[in-house]
Design brief:
The structure holds 4 protein chains of 4 kinds.
Chain A: H1 6-26, H2 30-49, H3 52-56, H4 65-81, H5 86-113, H6 119-141, E1 164-166, H7 173-176, E2 180-182, E3 185-187, H8 189-206, H9 209-219, H10 221-226, H11 231-257, E4 259-261, H12 269-279, H13 289-314, H14 317-361
Antiparallel strand pairs in A: 1-4, 2-3
Helix pairs in contact in A: 1-13, 2-8, 2-11, 2-13, 4-5, 4-6, 4-11, 5-6, 5-11, 9-11, 12-13, 12-14, 13-14
Chain C: H1 2-27, E1 30-36, E2 40-42, E3 45-47, E4 52-57, E5 60-66, E6 70-76, E7 79-87, E8 94-102, E9 109-113, H2 114-118, H3 123-126, E10 127-129
Chain D: E1 9-18, E2 21-31, E3 36-41, H1 47-55, H2 58-62, E4 67-72, E5 75-77, H3 82-87, E6 90-93, H4 105-109, E7 116-117, H5 122-125, E8 131-132, H6 134-148, H7 163-175, E9 182-186, H8 194-209, E10 213-217, H9 221-227, E11 230-235, E12 238-244, H10 250-258, E13 279-288, E14 295-303, E15 307-311, H11 320-325, E16 331-337, E17 340-342, H12 347-352, E18 355-358, H13 362-366, H14 373-385, E19 389-392, E20 397-400, H15 402-415, H16 432-445, E21 450-454, H17 462-479, E22 482-486, H18 490-496, E23 499-504, E24 507-513, H19 518-525
Parallel strand pairs in D: 3-10, 3-11, 6-9, 9-10, 15-22, 15-23, 18-21, 21-22
Antiparallel strand pairs in D: 1-2, 1-4, 4-5, 7-8, 11-12, 13-14, 13-16, 16-17, 19-20, 23-24
Helix pairs in contact in D: 6-7, 10-19, 14-15, 14-16, 16-17
The chains are: A mainly alpha, B mainly alpha, C alpha+beta, D alpha/beta.
């Protein structure tokens, strides 16, 4: 059953080749490279895990995961203003982000239920729409309606949040707990434990009734409905879970970064996470935990080495920068095209089989098929 | 919506057909226009602004029409056409054309690019019927980021365009002064007081709009509408659905190429690199605001939509700023335009997706 | 019956989470603590600054203060526990004192006057709020970039 | 078979109409515990409607419900939704599979009824977070499969199963429901091989012994006679026969199925076979891959100027013939028209050879629902024959001639009595009958030499039916167009056509003059039924 689909494996293989070419050119020492990859694994893996559940529910790549990221940013800004620091600050931010994420998730889920068959483009536009609302809150309401005390995060005009909010008090506090250094590579053990627990939760979730229902809904909504499964609700739940997880993932991500780029941090997150997942060999309708980790390693290796390799080849560092952006988009494009053509191919294959059966039987006649 | 029967019925009908978001946006603009004099904004300047911006953006919005008609959905892949236009503009300058001639040359050079890109793009969209919009978006993104590298690598050498120090690689912004800045707008420009009307640009838009309108009345144009309305019907009536769709994509792409050139001649600059990235979204929301849906659009939708959209873009900053001393225009623009697209996507549409 | 039970559990879970949040508010509250080795005055009495003060928090030396110096450290939670090593004169023996005190929740920055503290005076004598004075001078308006085009270079 | 005093199921005076169209008239039926009832009837006789009523299907409740009473176990019941029916112990296996393709048989058998293991988390987040008890699921599905008596691989994915096993998976799913008292099987043997069908019959007998009553709908009469205790025959919404299986035979059932006692109409009055007319279209060895309407090895000659009817039961392939010839579905074989061979799978060439086709799928293929009547009627003629166009610049630009289009549309609105507010009205807003007329007008406007009409009266009211059929006849007479008409309604074919070919099992089972007796048609229809 576990045949490796060559088409499916083509993207990871391509990336392995890109990395294999770029790594020597980049001139990075293996230690530095491993260090970077481990850091990025801890930073991004949780965020990418949040994409798995909507895929299971047949809703495609959840471009709306940005919603969770925004919820997390709002929570972190507030916590920062209240001067709750370090790990307790993160836990508090997580607690605050969850209800915001849930509300946004329900909203997004309801909208997506009205746009069945084009969930992806809708969730993509949804991310922009909520970004507008986020800006309204953060840029205009914070400081004027929502009390913000500290001038370090407030714009000098008296309301609105600065372009960058420093998270120095939380910076890598989670990563540093229980951290182990092996051969010069810092391993953020606690972060990895949290990610591992999340993986276990996802594995467990697949075995629950809800997980089973989601898989059923993902494969055939009508059949699931006939069997008495509440399709709409199940789909909304999957989006809510994804949004909440994205929010928690964003907190892990930002504590590692050490500051919030208030107006831009979330906007690219969705794209990079989705690209990483696809690079790991996932497709629009099928993704596993393995895809997440393979994706993080391959995608981020490319991300780290591409600019340096580009600079080495062309003498212009910008080429590499643009190259990795191009690759991110190209990967998503290719994955989407493969998904759509596969759908078509499955259909035509079915009718071809019918024809052959019939041809073989046609001269004989008389037999019931 | 032109004829007036009974006022009440009309309102009821138009509300149902119009949709709430569109109504809110229109109402908002009307409110802005009414408020403008009270808060001390200069109405003629505002109107002049709207007309100007309309003339810049009209053709980009018009580029949506063919693809919507053929059922390919909203052309989120507009950047592909824009890139053709940018190639035309930069090559025209590189080849040494100046003044109004450089505009003509830009269009001529952009055309083959638009045709080739459009055909590739159309071929791709024919392979993935049903998933057009998402893939179009990412085709646009990929091509923009690919071109980012190209702008650096391609052997441009005109000193007006490349980075001064390195002597190669195009600048992010290139001034069109001495080239086709105001090439169209300058033709028969009318200036009355604060109002200045770019007659040339408006006429050019009118010409293209008329061409599209006329095309939709031809045999092929009729087939295009039918393909968008019901591909199965069109196929049963002997229409080559794939060819018609391809044609519509090529048309959209070419219009986008011309559209960006017209935009640039008004704006006065060529913007390269990531600038074309999100240019599809304003155009998409403009045509939707104008009353189009995912698979129906008319020239009227283009005109009304562009005026409404650009009206909000130009009016909100001044009026809002004067009113509450907060410049929320950007945020309002994002919420309004994205809300409009969301609304259109969630509406039940028959036929194409 | 089932619903009631579930409601109960849910309420319990929410209360637990809220309680957790409340605990985080207390134990996670961050303060900046400043140590002053300066002359102090209280109740008409003068307390002279020491020759040298070393402040040790969590086995880590956070400040080494000569007379009239100010040092600082970050604190999480509501209790400040430090060891203060005091040298009265040059070349003299240092003696360590372990002190522990509650800090007011509402203060972001707290100034502690070490001589007053060592003299065993009441809290209001050695503890005062740190008020940032000239922090407001950078009044150039920050341009907010809500740039949709920007590709962040680090993820 | 024992007859209890209180039957398991009792239907009393069941009536149902769709918008005034009577489809069931006063049905009275009883079914004892463990009894097997065979339900026969032509398509459209009301079998599905009756079963839908019993099963609480949504389209019954949405169209105003039914009248009459249903008693289950002596209790009066009326189901609003299928779930209520299932709760009460009724199970139904539909013709279309309702299975999740990526699940295995066990998961499908217990879909949404999986046994669960308690987990503490569910106290907070609700029961759906209980984990599935895979072991128990396995046991339950094994039990159900055993009950069914046909061995299937319970761990095989549905999408890699042969079609028969999918059918058995569905049956096992119904059997796994403990409360099951009555199982409705809607043409279950249609997709089975002969051996599988035998296994199913044995399984039905087994169910009956366990005390489960079965309603068995099929076109294969020998199966009915083998397995059923009682045979009920529906015709035009009337229960014409309900006899013990032992007292009847195939011939008698066939006769009850097709015999029209009410009208007793013979062929159409002006029907005339034209044996001397030249053959205009000759079909040889045609196969068509149309899902659900597969055509196998059909050879047929159509004579110039005639109206040829093609009849047969649903799913036997009659719809595949015109759809295949017109290139809408993958097809093979040779088609010769007026001596020229017509390449298949190319709609354009068919249309250029002046064929026209009125599709059975009005809404999807037949109409531009969101465009005006003008567009609908003129479009094919415009695209194929360049009609209704004005040329400018020496033919470089071909513009729509709105005036000509309007005149054409007005002409057909009048001729076919299309009820509409004007030529600009959207096709979507018309009623089914009027939409059908628009489809005809569209084909007439092409002025074809050969016209295929597929199910022209499906889903339209009586008045419109007569109008449509008369319009067809008139068109045939006046313009000499050869017409091939496909319909499930034999009566209608007999009224309209000169000759009628009957399709059964994807093949032509015979061609009869329309005046031939009903029984002969019936026999042909059931000849190779799949």
């Amino acid at each position: 059953m576990k045949k490796i689909n060559l088409r499916q494996a083509s993207v990871p293989i391509m990336f392995i080749i890109i990395c294999a070419i770029c790594i020597p050119l980049s001139g990075l020492s293996p230690k530095m490279l491993v260090n970077e990859i481990v850091t990025r694994m801890g930073r991004n893996a949780f965020l990418i895990l949040s994409l798995l559940i909507p895929i299971m529910a047949g809703m495609g790549l959840n471009f709306g995961m940005t919603l969770g990221a925004m919820a997390a940013e709002i929570a972190l800004i507030l916590v920062c203003d209240w001067q709750i620091v370090s790990v307790p600050g993160m836990i508090l931010a997580a607690i605050i982000s969850v209800p915001i994420s849930v509300l946004l998730g329900i909203f997004c889920g309801k909208i997506l239920n009205r746009a069945k068959g084009r969930e992806m483009i809708t969730s993509y536009i949804m991310a922009f729409f909520v970004n507008g609302i986020y800006q309204l809150i953060v840029l205009y309401l914070m400081g004027s309606v929502i009390p913000i005390k500290h001038s370090t995060i407030k714009l000098p005009r008296g309301y609105g949040i600065r372009n960058t909010v420093s998270l120095l008090s939380m910076r890598q506090k989670l990563d540093n707990m229980l951290a182990v250094t092996i051969g010069g590579v810092k391993i953020p053990v606690l972060t990895f434990i949290i990610i591992a627990v999340m993986c276990l939760v996802i594995v467990w979730f697949r075995r629950t009734k809800l997980g089973q229902d989601m898989r059923a809904v993902g494969q055939d909504m009508e059949v699931a409905r006939d069997a008495g499964i509440n399709v709409e609700r199940t789909r909304i739940i999957s989006i809510v879970i994804s949004t909440v997880l994205a929010g928690l993932g964003m907190i892990i991500y930002l504590q590692n970064m050490g500051n919030i780029a208030t107006y831009t941090a979330h906007s690219q997150i969705g794209m990079f996470c989705i690209a990483a997942l696809l690079v790991g060999g996932a497709s629009v309708d099928k993704a596993s935990i393995g895809n997440v980790f393979l994706g993080v390693v391959l995608f981020h290796t490319m991300f780290i080495v591409a600019p340096r390799a580009g600079a080495y080849i062309t003498g212009d560092s910008m080429i590499g920068e643009y190259f990795r952006v191009f690759v991110s988009y190209a990967v998503i494009t290719v994955a989407l095209i493969m998904y759509e053509t596969n759908k078509r191919r499955a259909k035509s294959a079915a009718s071809q089989r019918l024809q052959e059966e019939q041809d073989a039987e046609s001269p004989a006649g008389g037999e019931n098929s | 919506m032109e004829e007036s029967i009974t006022f009440k019925d009309r309102i009821k009908d138009s509300v149902a057909e119009f949709g709430l978001p569109r109504l809110i946006i229109t109402g908002f603009l009307v409110l802005l226009l009414i408020m403008a004099p009270f808060v001390g904004a200069d109405l003629p300047t505002q109107i002049s602004n709207i007309i100007n911006r309309f003339s810049w953006n009209g053709i980009l919005v018009l580029a949506m029409v063919p693809m919507v008609h053929s059922g390919c959905g909203l052309n989120f892949g507009l950047p592909l056409g824009i890139i053709s236009g940018l190639l035309g503009a930069t090559m025209s300058i590189e080849l040494g054309f100046t003044g109004a001639m450089s505009f003509v040359a830009a269009i001529l050079i952009a055309t083959p690019f638009a045709l080739v890109f459009g055909m590739l793009y159309g071929w791709l969209l024919n392979k993935i019927k049903g998933g057009e919009m998402m893939i179009a978006t990412y085709v646009g993104f990929s091509s923009v980021s690919l071109m980012c590298m190209m702008w650096l690598v391609l052997p441009y050498s005109s000193p007006n365009m490349v980075w001064g120090l390195a002597g190669k690689g195009l600048r992010t912004t290139i001034s069109l002064e001495g080239y086709f800045d105001q090439a169209l707008a300058g033709i028969a420009q009318i200036n009355i007081g604060n109002i200045s009307i770019p007659t040339g640009t408006l006429l050019f838009f009118a010409l293209l709009a008329f061409a599209i309108w006329a095309f939709l009345h031809t045999k092929t144009g009729t087939a295009m509408t039918a393909v968008g309305s019901n591909p199965a019907f069109a196929k049963a009536a002997g229409v080559n659905v794939d060819r018609i769709r391809m044609l519509s994509v090529v048309m959209s792409t070419w219009l986008a190429a011309v559209g960006i050139l017209v935009y640039e001649q008004g704006f006065g600059f060529i913007q390269l690199y990531m600038a074309p990235f999100y240019m599809a979204l304003p155009a998409v929301s403009a045509i939707l605001i104008g009353g189009a849906s995912v698979n129906k659009a008319s020239i009227m939708n283009v005109i009304v939509g562009t005026i409404l959209f650009q009206g909000i873009v130009t009016m909100t900053p001044t009026v809002m700023n004067n009113m509450i001393h907060m410049d929320m225009s950007e945020v309002i623009r994002i919420i309004a335009s994205m809300g409009m697209i969301l609304f259109a996507l969630t509406r039940k549409t028959e036929g194409s997706r | 019956m089932k619903n009631k039970r579930q409601f109960l559990f849910r309420a319990l879970a929410i209360i637990l989470i809220l309680a957790l949040a409340a605990v985080m508010f207390v134990i996670g509250r961050g303060h900046t603590v400043y140590f002053d080795n300066k002359d102090a005055e209280y109740d008409g009495k003068e307390y002279e600054a020491f020759y040298k003060v070393v402040v040790i928090k969590d086995k880590e030396k956070v400040a080494k203060l000569e007379s009239d110096d100010r040092g600082m450290t970050d604190l999480m939670g509501q209790t400040l526990t430090v060891t203060v090593e005091i040298t009265d004169e040059k070349g003299g023996e240092s003696h360590a004192h372990k002190v522990s005190m509650p800090v007011p929740y509402s203060m972001d920055g707290i100034v502690i006057n070490v001589p007053a503290l060592m003299a065993g005076l009441p809290a209001e004598a050695y503890m005062s709020e740190f008020v940032p004075i000239a922090a407001e001078e950078e009044d150039e308006d920050e341009e907010v970039v809500i740039d949709e085009f920007e590709i962040s270079d680090d993820v | 078979m024992e007859t209890n005093s209180a039957p398991l199921l009792k239907l009393q005076g069941i009536k149902k109409d769709f918008n005034g169209n009577q489809v069931l008239a006063d049905i009275n039926l009883e079914l004892g515990k463990g009894e097997v009832l065979g339900l026969c009837g032509e398509n459209g006789a009301g079998k599905s409607t009756l079963m839908k009523i019993l099963f609480g299907a949504a389209d019954i409740t949405e169209t105003g419900g039914y009248s009459g009473d249903i008693y289950l176990d002596g209790q009066k019941v009326s189901f609003e939704t299928p779930f209520e029916a299932i709760e009460a112990g009724i199970g139904m296996v539909h013709q279309e599979f309702s299975l999740i393709p990526g699940f295995d048989a066990t998961e499908n058998i217990l879909l949404n009824r999986e046994p669960e293991k308690y987990s503490f988390i569910s106290e907070i987040f609700g029961d759906r977070l209980n984990t599935l008890d895979r072991k128990k699921m396995d046991e339950r599905s094994a039990e159900a499969v055993e009950k069914m008596g046909v061995a299937i691989d319970r761990h095989m994915m549905i999408n890699s199963m042969p079609v028969g096993h999918k059918q058995f998976t569905e049956i096992a799913r119904e059997l796994s429901k403990d409360q099951l008292k009555l199982l409705i099987l809607d043409e279950p043997t249609a997709v089975l091989t002969e051996r599988e069908a035998e296994a199913l019959l044995a399984s039905i007998k087994g169910m009956s012994e366990r005390g489960i009553s079965v309603i068995f709908i099929t076109h294969r009469l020998q199966e009915v006679l083998t397995v059923c205790d009682t045979v009920a025959v529906l015709r035009d919404g009337v229960l014409v026969e309900c006899t013990p299986a032992s007292e009847t035979d195939e011939a008698r059932i066939t006769k009850s199925m097709v015999g029209r006692s009410i009208m007793g109409v013979a062929g159409s009055d002006d029907a005339s076979e034209q044996p001397d007319a030249p053959t205009i279209l000759s079909i040889e060895k045609l196969w068509v891959d149309m899902p659900g309407e597969t055509v196998r090895n059909v050879s047929l000659d159509v004579k110039e100027g005639e109206i040829l009817g093609i009849g047969g039961l649903a799913g036997q392939g009659k719809l595949g013939i015109p759809n295949g010839i017109m290139g809408l579905y993958e097809a093979g074989g040779t088609v010769t028209f007026e001596g020229r061979q017509i390449p298949l799978n190319n709609p354009r060439i068919c249309l250029d050879s002046s064929f026209a086709f009125v599709s059975e799928d009005r809404r999807r293929v037949g109409l531009l629902l969101d465009e005006s009547l003008e567009w609908n009627i003129s479009f094919p003629a415009m695209q194929i024959q360049n009609k209704f166009l004005k040329s400018y610049l020496g033919g470089l630009i071909k513009w729509r001639d709105e005036k000509a289009i309007r005149e054409l549309t007005e002409k057909y609105i009048e001729e076919l009595q299309i009820r509409c507010t004007g030529t600009k009205q959207n096709a979507r807003q018309l009623s089914g009958g009027n939409q059908q007329k628009v489809c005809l007008a569209k084909a007439f406007a092409l002025q074809p030499r050969l016209l295929f009409v597929s199910e022209p009266t499906r889903g339209i009211d009586v008045g419109a039916k007569a109008l449509v059929l008369n319009a067809l006849k008139k068109f045939n007479k006046e313009s000499g167009t050869t017409v091939v008409m496909v319909s499930s309604e034999l009566q209608e074919l007999r009224q309209t056509c000169d000759r009628i070919a009957i399709v059964s099992g994807g093949r032509i089972s015979g061609i009869l003059p329309s005046s031939a007796p009903m029984e002969e048609f019936g026999t042909l229809m059931l000849k190779d039924v799949v």
